[in-house]
Amino acid sequence: MASETDGTSSTPLRQRLARLYYGRDTAAIRFQFALMVIDMAIIAFFLAGPYLRDRPSYLILDYAIAAWIAVEISAQWAASRTTRGFLMRPMTWVDLFVLGTLLFPQWLFNFAFLRVARIWAVAQRPVFKLMLKRLGLKEQTDVVTAFINLFVFLFLVTGFVYSFFFYREDAGTGFIDALYFTVATVTTTGFGDITLPGTFGKLTSIVTMIIGISLFVRLAQAIVRPYKVTFPCPECGLQRHDADAVHCKACGHVLNIPDDGL
Predict the structure, then answer these.
(1) pTM of the shown model
(2) At 1, is the pLDDT very low, low, confident or very high (cuts 50, 70, 90)?
(3) 190-199 contact pairs (CB < 8 A, 24+)
(4) Residue 6 has pLDDT above 50, yes or no
(5) pLDDT tops 80 at residue 156
(6) Which residue ranges traverse the bilayer (predicted)?
(7) Structural domain tally of the chain?
């Protein structure tokens, strides 16, 4: 019997959900791949939101996606070992906030840009690493992850700028202007033809430049840095090692790095 502090009971349903969400057998991989395809479709809907918001079918799709996300949140909670662990996951709170923007679009539309953060959910699924391996990109995992972080940041900032500065403009023109401003700011090109007004606009530009440059540097480091695996040394705790390392580079302790074959 599970302890009362677990927050979830050990039931066949919970065990099955945990195997589907975190397992590596054929059924789990197929399930995770289906979820990833659905995630990509949802993200495409979010990115196309500025162009679709005036259509009658927009709210129907909006609430359908809200129902799906609510079901998935419930399933992930059931699959988690503890409720505390589930609530400690950053993506849990992202999903909850995205759900709020879908259920109450009239009140929380200004925060709809946070929906793009669901791209991170795709990168966190175990099947994502399997796909990279099958595509011959296993050694570029850090590069792909850094690129995804930069991509998500660009569209988060674009959505923020669009929601707070260009929302009154035509949907297509406003979104493109917001994206153009974001890319020009992150790359520090600074053409100056589109700027954000007021003190709030200047602060937004400053934060965008600082974080954007940091993510660019992180991507550059991932590209030029030799491929390493994450395996904590049991002696000194060093996290990163060469994939074929036999001894820890810091303390010389014998390592037993498992093959990451799937």
Answers:
(1) 0.64
(2) very low
(3) 196/161, 196/165, 197/165
(4) no
(5) yes
(6) 27-48, 60-79, 99-122, 143-166, 203-224
(7) 3
pLDDT tens for 215-255 read 888 888 777 766 666 777 877 777 776 666 767 776 777 77
Q: How many angstroms separate the CA atoms of 262 and 129, rounded?
A: 9
Residues across the chain: 262
CA distances from 249 to 139, 223, 239 (A): 20, 22, 11
Domain range for 262 is 229-262
β-strands 240-242, 228-230 pairing: antiparallel
Strand partners, 241: 229
Domain with residue 167: its CATH number is 1.10.287.70
What whole-number distance in Å separates Cα of residue 169 and Cα of residue 177?
10
| Domain match, 114 and 2 both | yes
69, 99 Cβ separation under 8 angstroms: yes
Q: What is the pLDDT of residue 243?
A: 67
Half-sphere exposure of residue 145: CA atoms within 13 angstroms, side-chain side: 13
